[in-house]
Task: inverse folding
């Protein structure tokens, strides 16, 4: 699979890129399962409004930024993993 595709897939659904590559399977399954559980939990009431921990607008922006950085980090790691053969 092309490394850029794996990186994008892993950035959107962390853990899935590792599973598609067949590498770091335990890590991939743990991250993927955690991601799916987080998505499910975000739609369950009353947690839908309290997914982020901060109560201020600035704090929520900062947390969302770091979640984005987290997703990008997984994408880059999967890209690097796909490049190594």
Result:
């Amino acid at each position: 699979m092309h490394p850029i595709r794996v990186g994008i897939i892993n950035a959107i659904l962390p853990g899935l890129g590792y599973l598609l590559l067949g590498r770091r399977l335990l890590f991939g399954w743990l991250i993927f399962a955690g991601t799916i559980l987080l998505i499910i939990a975000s739609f369950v009431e009353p947690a839908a409004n309290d997914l982020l921990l901060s109560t201020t607008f600035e704090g929520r922006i900062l947390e969302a930024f770091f979640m984005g950085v987290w997703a990008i980090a997984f994408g880059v790691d999967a890209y690097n993993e796909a490049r190594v053969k």
